[in-house]
Amino acid sequence: MSEWRIERRPPAVQVRDMLYKMLIEKHFVPGDRLPSEAELADRFGVSRSALREALKLMEEERVILCQHGVGRFMAPQIAGIYSEDITHLKSVSELSISLGTTLTCKVLTVGEVAADEAIAGYLDLPVGAPLVALERVWHGQECPIIYSLDYFTRAFAAGPLTVERFQGSLLALIETENHLKVNYAKTAIKAVQMEQDLLTKLGMAKPNPWIFLEQLNFDIYNHPLIFSRDYYNTEKFEFRVLRKRK
Question: 73 in helix, strand or coil?
Fold first, then answer.
């Protein structure tokens, strides 16, 4: 077994992520019925107990609903607002299936840049190191939902930097091409008014507030991998978090 496949996460979390991948690849939509526990356990080669824990996690995240005696179904989208549990680190592809919708990705720019002092510090690289700067926007049915700007070392994306290459999950691309695992992220969150030049680029005139996430993704060995600046449209998106009293 290669080193990158060593997993430190609980089995239920690993199975949950496999379920997310299946739902994305099979294009499940709200109301669709999931395969039975027996089918899923056989598909992933896991125990029923680990599968049930994973399904329970997805129920808590409101990705699926359980109707006892009937089965499990993809949860509906509520009131035209995309609502998501912020505590689970997902790619936008995984996020779209959680939301029960399809978000269309458009690559605005992708190219090689030299790391400035700030980003070099985040990624633990020398100033001037070659990076990839990736700028994308995801649309829902009516308007832009997410705008993102990602930076990562050029070594993670050997070869041509084509638009087609970056229209899917960036996390999956980096994991697959480099045999590593994105494990967790440190994220700062605040509400902002998006800059006018970005609004113009996105074809939006109304300066409504956006949720701004500045995020640094790490592998299982605590090495920084991707530095991101993401904006979420508050007219169409909200984050949820479970808060417990100690």
Answer: strand
Closest CA to 212 of 235, 236, 193: 193
The count of other CB atoms within 10 Å of the CB of residue 242 is 9
Torsion angles phi and psi, residue 102, rounded to 5: -115, 120
| 239 Cβ contact partners less than 8 Å away, ≥ 6 residues apart | 83, 84, 85, 86, 189, 211, 232
**pLDDT, tens digit, for every residue of 163-206?**
999 988 899 899 999 999 999 999 999 999 888 888 888 888 77
DSSP helix/strand/coil, 117: helix
Which regions of the chain are under pLDDT 50? 1-7, 78-81
Domains and CATH numbers, the chain: 3-74 (1.10.10.10), 82-240 (3.40.1410.10)
